[in-house]
Design goal:
heterodimer; A: 5 helices; B: five-stranded antiparallel beta sheet
């Protein structure tokens, strides 16, 4: 893998870990860090981006990377699941 | 604002400093913490009193990395602090990462007043807010000037405690919900002693005893209580008990109980008792394995963990988990070391009571947790216990 590809893979895995740690992923993925579908991941990233006031791209871009490095409280983001529900409902 | 999972039943709360940060004089830390608490008393009925010789509702701790809860800190940056929602035991406690550079203002490091005020919001029952202007916004924003509680947070706190609310009492915790553990004066939790029989006792009634450990070994369930164990086939029929040391050759004869056990994919069986473990090949201790066992710290379990409550393989990912109190660890694929970002909090396993007595994956691949005379079946896909649980252990075995 090229350096860029390796960097992107690491960013993806760091993102999944971050999402699980702060409550943006529910179900077994919270523990396994595997996602049931790509849709779940996109939804969770969008929810994080919305909370961080970033454009909701659904991909771990450089702004999302910077957000994940910002100092923060270690408690879960209680609104994360609510956010995902709103998103699903709106979509339907 | 988002309310958390619990509130305090009264408005006169206590706090206590467990220790102080070396980043500033103690008097400075005390002032900032008191000011952070005061933030929540404006136009609310809340009052805070410092105690020095008893347990307090809010215990304030500065710590680095692993600090005996399921939420180790991560060094400088990223996670700054965390706090627990109201409740007995560690409920209400606020922990600050002492790898941060704590300061008295936002320009010279991390502003302790701001972070402490945020954490006390959790300690009072508020969750994170999505509003960047709110104190309860999860990311550290810094602040200049004189701090006042933002409107969103004021709405949150008055929604929880009003402006002249009468004292309420905690409702009885429903069975099956997470039970909080009591604290002891040094701030570390204690757990009730298991009620297993002691030396000289005959075999207990497996239908009405606390289970110490159990696992499936080559299709049979092995159930351990005190100095005895039972073998159960797929029909869950209970056979005659056998004394542990008369079958598992190599375990110390004076071993009072097995705390946890699991079978590795290579068919080796790992036993835990206290802070030691033993590895067996069939029913013989591995050759050259010390009879007194090896310390569980060899798995990278912290030295202050004195007992593994349960060990089980999770059917969802086939990985082995170790549980102690309200913390758990996932083992690596070789079952030789715990993964690097553990322990985590047992709250991830929603509805599982802590401390568990035992846990295992049964022959059908279902994860079962045991505590006292009850058991809980776990719903992997939803990461919570199944509805309708707990049930009595006696319903689990065919002969009870």
């Amino acid at each position: 893998a090229s350096r860029t590809e390796r960097k992107y893979r690491k960013l993806q895995s760091d993102t999944v870990k971050y999402l699980a740690q702060f409550g943006y992923l529910s179900g077994p993925s919270q523990e396994t860090q595997n996602l049931r579908s790509k849709e779940d991941l996109v939804r969770a990233i969008k929810s994080l981006q919305r909370a961080g006031g970033l454009p909701e791209t659904g991909v771990p871009d450089s702004r999302t990377e910077a957000l994940m490095k910002k100092p923060r409280c270690g408690n879960m983001d209680d609104f994360a699941q609510t956010g995902i529900d709103h998103f699903s409902r709106k979509k339907r | 604002f988002i309310p958390g999972t619990s509130t305090w039943p009264r408005t006169n709360l206590t706090f206590r400093f467990v220790n102080y940060t070396p980043d500033m004089p103690q008097a400075q830390t005390r002032k900032l913490i008191v000011d952070a608490l005061k933030v929540w008393t404006v136009s609310t009925p809340l009052t805070f009193t410092e105690v020095t010789d008893t347990m307090a509702d809010i215990m304030i701790l500065f710590a680095k990395k692993y600090h005996s809860d399921g939420h180790p800190f991560d060094g400088t940056g990223s996670v700054l602090a965390h706090a627990f929602f109201p409740g007995p035991g560690k409920g209400g406690d606020a922990h600050f990462d002492d790898d941060e550079n704590w300061s008295t203002n936002s320009s010279g490091g991390i502003d302790l007043l701001l972070v402490a005020a945020h954490e006390f919001g959790h300690a009072l029952g508020l969750g994170h807010s999505e509003k960047p202007s709110a104190l309860m916004y999860p990311w550290y924003m810094g602040f200049e000037g004189e701090f006042e509680l933002p409107h969103d947070d004021w709405q949150g706190i008055t929604n929880l405690y009003g402006t002249g609310i009468k004292d309420r009492t905690f409702p009885e915790r429903e069975k099956g919900k997470v039970k909080y553990k009591p604290n002891v004066p040094d701030g570390k939790p204690v757990y009730p002693e298991p009620t297993s029989p002691t030396a000289g006792d005959g075999p207990p009634d497996p239908c009405n005893s606390h289970i110490d450990a159990l696992t499936v070994i080559r299709t049979e369930i092995f159930l351990f209580i005190g100095k005895w164990f039972w073998r159960l086939g797929p029909q869950k029929l209970i056979n005659k008990p056998v004394e542990i040391h008369k079958f598992w050759y190599g375990l110390p004869k004076d071993l009072e109980r097995i705390d946890a056990v699991f079978e590795r994919p290579d068919n080796k069986i790992v036993f835990f008792s206290g802070d030691r473990f033993w590895v067996f090949n069939a029913n013989h201790l591995l050759s050259r394995f010390p009879v007194e066992g090896r310390p569980i710290t060899e798995f990278n379990i912290p030295a202050d963990v004195k007992k593994i409550d349960a060990a089980f393989q999770w059917s969802y990912n086939k990985r082995t988990y170790l549980v102690s109190g309200d913390m758990y660890w996932k083992m690596d694929e070789n079952n030789s070391f715990v993964e690097y970002d553990y322990p985590r909090d047992m709250g991830t396993w929603k509805g599982v009571p802590v401390p568990v007595d035992a846990a295992f994956m049964d022959q059908s691949g279902t994860t079962i947790f045991f505590q006292g005379l009850d058991y809980w079946q776990f719903y992997d896909m939803k990461m919570r216990v199944q509805r309708g649980y707990p049930r009595r252990i006696s319903h689990y075995w065919s002969q009870c």
